[in-house]
Amino acid sequence: MVKEIERAGIPVVHIATVVPISLTIGANRIVPAVGIPYPLGDPNLGEEKSRKIRRELVERALGALMTPVEEQTVFEK
User: Fold this and answer.
1) Alpha carbons 48 and 51: distance in angstroms, whole number
2) How many helices (H) and strands (E) does the chain have?
3) Opening angle at CA 15, ends 10 and 18, nearest 5
4) How far is CA 46 from CA 29, 35, 41, in A?
5) According to the model, what pLDDT value does residue 1 have?
6) Model confidence at 77, in pLDDT bands (50, 70, 90)?
7) Which domain holds residue 70?
8) Please, which pLDDT band fits residue 45 given cuts at 50, 70 and 90?
9) Could you give the number of structural domains in the chain?
10) Using an 8 Å Cβ cutoff, are 53 and 41 in contact?
11) String of DSSP letters for 29-61
12) Would you say 19 and 39 are in contact if contact means Cβ atoms under 8 Å apart?
Protein backbone atom coordinates (compact mmCIF):
# COMPACT_ATOMS: atom_id res chain seq x y z
CA MET A 1 0.00 0.00 0.00
CA VAL A 2 2.89 2.37 0.78
CA LYS A 3 4.20 2.17 -2.77
CA GLU A 4 0.76 2.89 -4.24
CA ILE A 5 0.24 5.94 -2.05
CA GLU A 6 3.65 7.29 -2.99
CA ARG A 7 3.03 6.50 -6.67
CA ALA A 8 0.01 8.82 -6.37
CA GLY A 9 2.41 11.58 -5.28
CA ILE A 10 1.70 11.49 -1.55
CA PRO A 11 4.80 10.99 0.62
CA VAL A 12 4.48 8.40 3.38
CA VAL A 13 6.46 7.89 6.59
CA HIS A 14 6.48 4.63 8.53
CA ILE A 15 6.95 5.09 12.25
CA ALA A 16 8.13 1.54 12.78
CA THR A 17 8.98 -0.59 15.78
CA VAL A 18 10.70 -3.17 13.56
CA VAL A 19 12.67 -1.29 10.92
CA PRO A 20 13.70 -4.40 8.91
CA ILE A 21 10.03 -5.12 8.18
CA SER A 22 9.54 -1.59 6.82
CA LEU A 23 12.65 -2.05 4.69
CA THR A 24 11.31 -5.36 3.40
CA ILE A 25 7.94 -3.92 2.36
CA GLY A 26 9.63 -1.05 0.56
CA ALA A 27 8.87 1.98 2.71
CA ASN A 28 10.95 4.93 1.54
CA ARG A 29 10.91 7.02 4.73
CA ILE A 30 11.24 5.16 8.02
CA VAL A 31 11.32 6.62 11.53
CA PRO A 32 12.25 4.09 14.24
CA ALA A 33 9.73 4.00 17.10
CA VAL A 34 10.42 3.43 20.78
CA GLY A 35 9.48 -0.25 21.07
CA ILE A 36 6.89 -2.86 20.29
CA PRO A 37 4.61 -2.54 23.33
CA TYR A 38 4.65 1.28 23.26
CA PRO A 39 5.79 2.58 19.86
CA LEU A 40 5.10 6.24 20.62
CA GLY A 41 6.08 6.58 24.25
CA ASP A 42 6.63 4.73 27.50
CA PRO A 43 3.98 4.91 30.23
CA ASN A 44 6.61 3.98 32.80
CA LEU A 45 8.34 7.33 32.20
CA GLY A 46 5.29 9.38 33.08
CA GLU A 47 3.06 11.53 30.93
CA GLU A 48 5.45 14.47 30.49
CA LYS A 49 8.40 12.40 29.25
CA SER A 50 6.13 10.21 27.13
CA ARG A 51 4.63 13.31 25.51
CA LYS A 52 8.14 14.58 24.75
CA ILE A 53 8.97 11.27 23.04
CA ARG A 54 5.80 11.45 20.94
CA ARG A 55 6.52 15.03 19.92
CA GLU A 56 10.09 14.20 18.87
CA LEU A 57 8.88 11.24 16.79
CA VAL A 58 6.20 13.30 15.06
CA GLU A 59 8.67 16.14 14.38
CA ARG A 60 11.14 13.64 12.91
CA ALA A 61 8.36 12.15 10.77
CA LEU A 62 7.36 15.61 9.50
CA GLY A 63 10.98 16.29 8.65
CA ALA A 64 11.11 13.00 6.77
CA LEU A 65 8.00 13.97 4.80
CA MET A 66 9.71 17.15 3.65
CA THR A 67 12.93 15.37 2.67
CA PRO A 68 13.22 14.20 -0.93
CA VAL A 69 14.51 10.62 -1.06
CA GLU A 70 15.69 8.46 -3.93
CA GLU A 71 16.05 5.26 -1.93
CA GLN A 72 14.92 3.82 1.37
CA THR A 73 16.02 6.09 4.20
CA VAL A 74 15.90 5.53 7.96
CA PHE A 75 15.57 8.82 9.83
CA GLU A 76 17.38 8.23 13.11
CA LYS A 77 17.67 10.82 15.86
Assistant:
1) 5
2) 3, 3
3) 130
4) 29, 16, 9
5) 76
6) confident
7) 2-74
8) very high
9) 1
10) yes
11) EEEE-S-SS-TT--GGG-HHHHHHHHHHHHHHH
12) no
CA distance 65 to 16: 15
Query: Where is mean pLDDT largest: 2-6, 41-45, 61-65?
Result: 61-65
Q: What are phi and psi of 31, to 5 degrees?
A: -115, 115
Neighbours of 14 (CB within 10 A): 22
Amino acid letter at 12?
V
What strand order describes the sheet that includes 29-32? 13-16, 29-32, 73-74
Stated as kind and residue range, the H or E segment containing 15 is: strand 13-16
Burial class (CB in 10 A: 0-12, 13-18, 19+), 22: buried
pTM above 0.70, yes or no: yes
